[in-house]
Each structure stands twice: as structure tokens, then as C-alpha cells.
Design brief:
alpha/beta, Rossmann fold, Transcription Termination Factor Rho, Rna-binding Domain, Chain A, Domain 1, 2 domains, two-stranded parallel ribbon, 9 helices, 8 strands, about 40% helix
């Protein structure tokens, strides 16, 4: 890795890179200031018009279970979702319903995802060199797919080999979630590099045997918290991948 305050000079010889989104590939401010309000304003209409759809109905049932309110009506569920969104709670049903609304907003051209300036070029270079790229975010898989489909430079879906969230992998601060992803992608833990801005996630990935880099971008919410003893970088172009034969 190239020089910078607190940056460790390390080249990673890996077969796969797993990406966090918020605060890592993309600005948290965009998610908080654009995406969260977009979904919050539409929860009520979604529940009223499409509450019987399997994905929506399953998420509503999960909201009632998590809130310990089995008889909550649509109005109450909408209020709970709004409270969770305001608190940035990483609740699976909230992320599911946000993902439904965001995917539709992207598809209609009402939303375009955000990436930090160097990210897309670096991801293209890594993929072209044979590195397999995956995404693991607290946002739903549907939201992740929309994010990479409707980027400012068009679809990036051809770069990504798979998407993981808290439903198909598990909580992001538990090592077993990373072990589950390793099993799913068929890449050895020590040949997998995880990029995130959150120390708890980096620790969990390291506990599962993964390589790690803490991405520290000035202005992001977790910048001041640091990344503990993990290697760190201020941008993706400070991260070097070995070019060994894979």
C-alpha cells in the first residue's frame, strides 16, 4: 500500500476482495441524506398497496416479531420502520423494504448510486487482473444489485461475482458470517481480503481468517474511531494486490 498517515505498506496476494459499501466504496452521507428519506417517504404506500406480496409480507412479519408487537397494523409498522431508519438500525426487515423501494427508484431513474472517485476504476482493474469481487453490506442484496447496476458510469454488475447481506450471510460483526461467505464463494479465508470502515466488522473478518484493510475516509462517521491494528488506506488506489498467477 502506498504512503499516507498511518498507512501500512502491504501488498495483498489474494484471490477475492469483499467490499463493504457505506463508508467504504461510497459516501455514508449519500445513503443518509438521499436514500433513507426516499424510502421513509414511501413505506406507507408500499405497505398499503403491496402488503400481500410475499417479500413485503415476510418483512412485515419480521418487524412485528422484532418489535414484539404481533398485532401491529400497517400504520404502526410504518412508524416502527421510520424509527428504525432514523436510528440507522441494521434490522433485516428494514433493509429488505428499503431495498425494494431503492431498487425501484434506481430502475425509474429517480436515483443514481454514489461511488468515491477512484473506486470504479480500481475495481475494474482488479477484476481485469482476475481478482473476484464480492459485496457484503447491511443493505439488502436487492439494494446492492441496484447500487451496482445504476452507477454514475452505468452497470458494474459484470465486475461482481456475488452479493451478501445480513439475511443470506448473517450479522456483519460476527465471525461466523464471514465463514459462511468463505464456504459460499469457495475461496480460502487467507486468500480473501475484506474492505470496510468499521472496526467491529474488520475484527470479525480477521477472526474468520480473512485479510483486512480499514478504509478511512475523512468525513465519514467512523473515521475518528480508527481501525485498530488493521492495515488502513484512505482510498482504494492505496491498496495493492499482488499479481501472482491465480
Amino acid at each position: 500500500m502506498t504512503s499516507g498517515p498511518g498507512t501500512t505498506r502491504t501488498e495483498f496476494d489474494v484471490d477475492a476482495v469483499v467490499l463493504d459499501i457505506e463508508g467504504t466504496t461510497s459516501a455514508t452521507g449519500f445513503v443518509v441524506d438521499v436514500l433513507y428519506p426516499y424510502a421513509r417517504e414511501r413505506f406507507g404506500a408500499l405497505l398499503a398497496a403491496r402488503g400481500e406480496e410475499p417479500e413485503v409480507a415476510r418483512a412485515v412479519a419480521q418487524v412485528r416479531e422484532l418489535a414484539a408487537e404481533p398485532d401491529a397494523d400497517a400504520g404502526r409498522v410504518e412508524k416502527i420502520l421510520g424509527e428504525w431508519a432514523d436510528a440507522d438500525r441494521k434490522a433485516t426487515p428494514l433493509k429488505t423494504l428499503q431495498g425494494v423501494l431503492w431498487a425501484e427508484g434506481f430502475a425509474r431513474g429517480e436515483l443514481v448510486s454514489h461511488f468515491y472517485p477512484e473506486v470504479i476504476g480500481v475495481l475494474r482493474a482488479w477484476a481485469a487482473d482476475g481478482t473476484r469481487l464480492y459485496v457484503y453490506s447491511s443493505g439488502s442484496v436487492a439494494a446492492q444489485r441496484a447500487w451496482f447496476t445504476y452507477s454514475p458510469e452505468g452497470s458494474l454488475m459484470d465486475l461482481v461475482s456475488g452479493f451478501y447481506d445480513t439475511e443470506n450471510a448473517g450479522p456483519k460483526q460476527e465471525a461466523d458470517s464471514y465463514r459462511a461467505i468463505s464456504a459460499a464463494i469457495g475461496v480460502a479465508a487467507d486468500r480473501t481480503l475484506f474492505l470496510s470502515d468499521r472496526l467491529g466488522e474488520l475484527d470479525a473478518a480477521r477472526d474468520a481468517g480473512w485479510r483486512t484493510v480499514g478504509v478511512r475516509r475523512a468525513g465519514e462517521p467512523y473515521f475518528a474511531a480508527g481501525v485498530g491494528g488493521h492495515p488502513q488506506a484512505a482510498a482504494f488506489d492505496e491498496i495493492s494486490l499482488a499479481r501472482s498467477v491465480r
